[in-house]
Specification:
The structure is a single chain. This protein starts with a helix and ends with a strand. By secondary structure, it is of the alpha/beta class. The chain has helices spanning 5-17, 19-25, 38-53, 69-82, 92-101, 140-150, 166-181, 197-205, 217-221, 223-233, 257-272, 294-299, 306-311, and strands at residues 28-33, 59-64, 86-90, 107-112, 131-135, 156-161, 185-190, 210-213, 237-239, 251-254, 283-284, 289-292, 314-315. α3 crosses α11, α4 crosses α5 (92-101) and α8 (197-205) packs parallel to α10 (223-233). The protein is elongated, with a radius of gyration of 20 Å. α7 links the parallel β6 and β7. The strands form three sheets. It has a six-stranded parallel β-sheet, sandwiched between helices. The protein has a four-stranded parallel β-sheet with strand order 7-6-8-9, with helices on both faces.
């Protein structure tokens, strides 16, 4: 069961009300994310629930950088000052900020697509140092198959992304390779901050046959504004994360980010029980569910084939 906001806040109060007393009884797990949106929030809740499922008694605290890299750096310095037992960094920018702030405190990253390319580690099997974690590299080939199954007329695929997010840059590069092999041209539009997403959407609406939203935190945090623009232009939108499907994308194949958080908590638990983070190989998120939104498809003037609907693990917005 997912934690609702009330239960999560209550858990946080244990740490914020009397930190000195709590630290005497329980190790501190400090959690941060670059921004709040459903996928990252679900990941955070999954970490807390996963620690609970393991029977671990811990104190937790959480801070969001609200999409600002400078704030992520401030949070990193603040967390180092708290001297927690483990830091959980959700998303690439937060993980990079934490890795720059400490070489001693164990860091477990999660919701990070390409940890080597992001400079967090050098070796997936032997990360060394104080950093380990979990990669959520998207099943891009399956995403492209899904798009072309529902919208076989697509010849130009628009991708909005933040060039400052290493994970997004990697995903765009990989998707471009997959698309080229299928005779599809990728059209890029950059958005360095959430306020730029609408402009990126307008650019793509005039040039692309469909839009693919990768697991880019900047774009996902402003997804609704992108969808408004795309609906007006009748350009169907697909997503790299399944949580975005309920927000108006037509479909995705991907991870349940709550379960990604639960899986991440297993790594945290190993460290709390004495293992060194540098000895723990990087894990890859498990599970790939097909999630579809027929109502969203209709709003774009698209029909999802019945056989695809029959294979869906979850249908939303119906």
């Amino acid at each position: 069961m997912r934690l609702d906001r009330r239960s999560f806040s209550a858990l946080l109060l244990v740490g914020t009300a009397a930190p000195s007393l709590a630290r005497a009884d329980a190790p501190l797990v400090a959690i941060t994310a670059i921004v709040e949106h459903p996928a990252l929030d679900a990941c955070r809740d999954g970490v807390v629930e996963g620690l609970k499922q393991q029977g671990l008694t811990v104190e937790t605290t959480y801070q969001s950088a609200q999409g600002q890299p400078a704030t992520a750096a401030q949070i990193a310095r603040s967390f180092v000052g708290m001297d927690p037992a483990v830091i959980v960094a959700i998303s690439t920018p937060s993980a990079q900020a934490m890795a720059s702030a400490t070489k001693d405190i164990p860091i477990v990253f999660t919701a990070v697509t390409a940890p080597v390319e992001a400079g967090l580690i050098d070796d997936l099997n032997h990360p060394g140092g104080n950093v380990t974690g979990l990669s959520d590299l998207s099943p891009l080939a399956q995403h492209l198959n899904l798009i072309l199954t529902i919208s076989p007329e697509v010849k130009r695929l628009g991708i909005p992304y933040n060039p400052g997010e290493a994970n997004a840059v990697t995903l765009v590069r990989l998707m471009t390779d997959y698309a080229r092999d299928r005779g599809v041209e990728v059209v890029e539009a950059t958005a360095s901050k959430s306020a730029d997403v609408v402009a990126a959407a307008r650019t793509l609406a005039g040039q692309a046959d469909a839009i693919y939203v990768p697991t880019d935190n900047t774009v996902v945090s402003a997804l609704e504004s992108l969808i408004v623009v795309a609906r007006q232009a009748k350009v169907p939108v697909f997503s790299g994360d399944t949580d975005s499907v309920a927000r108006g994308c037509i479909g995705s194949i991907g991870f349940d980010y709550f379960q990604v958080g639960v899986q991440t908590a297993q790594i945290v638990g190993r460290i709390l029980k004495g293992e060194k983070p540098g000895d723990i190989a990087i894990e890859v998120a498990t599970g790939t569910d097909l999630v579809l939104n027929p109502a969203a498809a209709e709003s774009f003037g698209v029909t999802i084939p019945d056989d695809l609907l029959a294979r869906a693990a979850k249908i939303v917005g119906a």
